[in-house]
Amino acid sequence: MEKSWMPAYRRSKDYEEGVEEFLRISLANAIDHGRIRCPCQKCGNTRKFTIRVIREHMYFNGFDQTYKDWIWHAKPIEINASETVNQETQTERDFFGETVDMCEGAHEHFTENPEEFKKFLEEGKKPLYPGCYKHTKLSGLIKLYNLKARHGMTDNCFADMLIELGDFLPIGQELPSSMFKAKKTLNALGLKYEKIHACFNDCILYRKKYHDLTSCPKCGLSRWKVTKKNVYRKKYHDLTSCPKCGLSRWKVAKKNVVKKGVPTNVLWYFPPIPRFKRMFKSLETSKSLTWHNEAQIKDGRLRHPADSPSWKMIDYKWPDFGSEPRNLRLALSSDGINPHSSLSSRYSC
Q1: Cα(307)–Cα(304) distance, rounded to whole angstroms?
Q2: Least C-beta-crowded within 10 Å: which of 50, 145, 235, 276?
Q3: What is the mean pLDDT of each run of 10 residues along the chain (349 residues)?
Q4: CB of 266 within 8 A of CB of 198?
Q5: Where does 151-256 show beta strands of DSSP type E?
Q6: CA gap 26, 31 in Å, rounded
Q7: Please, what's the b/e burial string for 160-179 (b: 16 or more CB within 10 A of its CB; e: otherwise)?
Q8: Nearest one of 72, 93, 91, 89 to 25, comparing CA atoms
Q9: CB 173 within 8 A of CB 128
Q10: DSSP letters of 71-119?
């Protein structure tokens, strides 16, 4: 199969003919002709679209130059008595692709207990229900939880949805039956976060030297919400005990821990370093993260943020940082910029 067209100019005749030939081969070998994997630089074979959308992506985003072995598009599928076997082989590859990145985080979570990790891995790779060729137990739960987060679904609503979906699926389905079990699985993936109290006016975060403060040192607002039942008003607003009888303002729990109330503002902090490490553990993702240094065409033209003056200025001012291709330049990341000055919103860099 001819692949010399892949790095060609996108408006050239060779690139156009190469795209059409690639799409023809993909359709001929696809199981689902309605939706196939998109090999553009943005999707990287992780998302499925129709042929029309994929054609647009390949012109707007370009073909992924690291995708040299067309394992998702050019492997012929034999339709014969062994069709079931071939389908199961394809399914195993899909399962692996869906769960490998998520299991990387679980490996770190179970570092001290490898037997638990082995058990988690076996559970996560199970089909969502007997005969399911599209989702595993783990990938199905992740997609449902993404839906919950996208639409602001409450925990109770999500738990009820899990129960109802479990009734719709065939006998032997692997969906968790409660919110507790779902969170237990997600926590094992290493998707941890930290909740940090913040000033209502976003002046400070109550951490480090401000950790024990009850009011903001800059604007003076209280760290805690004032409810209707709160009798500490006006000049007594910031007191922690009654000026007359001396009793504490807060309830004392059984473990002698003072309950301070509800914070006015909370920052949900997701530590980036563990996620960066996990991204580099994946062979395909690590190639994409260092593509600007290893596979980029450097001919003086602006094709990538690495060709921009801002990128080069960072390399000049901080040579130690610029000399390491694995460093991630988050400050240069952007979304919604359309370099073609078109009103179409289909392109996003």
Answers
A1: 6
A2: 235
A3: 82 88 86 82 82 88 83 58 37 42 56 64 78 82 83 86 88 86 74 84 91 89 72 62 71 48 85 80 81 82 85 88 86 55 50
A4: yes
A5: 194-197
A6: 10
A7: ebbeeeeeeeeeebbbbeeb
A8: 72
A9: yes
A10: TTTSS----STTHHHHHHHHHHHHHHHHHHHHHHHHHHHTTT-HHHHHH
CA–CA separation, 124 vs 133, rounded Å?
A: 14
| Residue 50 zone, left/alpha/beta (φ > 0; ψ -120 to 50; rest) | beta
**Cβ-count burial of 137 within 10 angstroms (0-12 exposed, 13-18 middle, 19+ buried)?**
buried
- Please list the alpha-helical segments (H only) found in the chain: 13-29, 51-60, 83-109, 114-124, 137-150, 155-168, 179-188, 272-281, 283-289, 291-294, 309-317, 319-322
Look-up of token digits 């991204």: 279
Which residues fall within 8 angstroms of residue 261, CB to CB, at 6 or more apart? Answer: 224, 225, 250
Dmax (CA) of the chain: 88
Residues in the chain: 349
Q: Please report, as a single letter, which amino acid is at residue 153.
A: M
Q: Which two tokens stand for residue 83?
A: 């069709």
Report which secondary-structure segment, H or E, holds 267.
strand 266-269
Query: Within 13 A of 263's CA, how many CA atoms are on the CB side?
Result: 19
The residues facing 269 across adjacent strands are: 194
Task: Evaluate whether 311 touches 329 at the Cβ level (below 8 Å).
Answer: yes
* Mode of pairing for the β-strands spanning 48-49 and 36-37: antiparallel
At 23 the three-state DSSP class reads helix
Q: Give the pLDDT confidence score for residue 102 in this predicted structure.
A: 53
Model confidence, pTM: 0.42
Residue 208 CA to residue 262 CA, distance in Å, equals 20
The whole-angstrom separation of Cα 246 and Cα 152 is 43
Task: Say what the pLDDT of residue 33 is.
Answer: 75
- What the block records as the tokens of 43 is 């999707």
Q: Which two tokens stand for residue 179?
A: 């919110």
How far apart are alpha carbons 35 and 31 in whole angstroms? 9
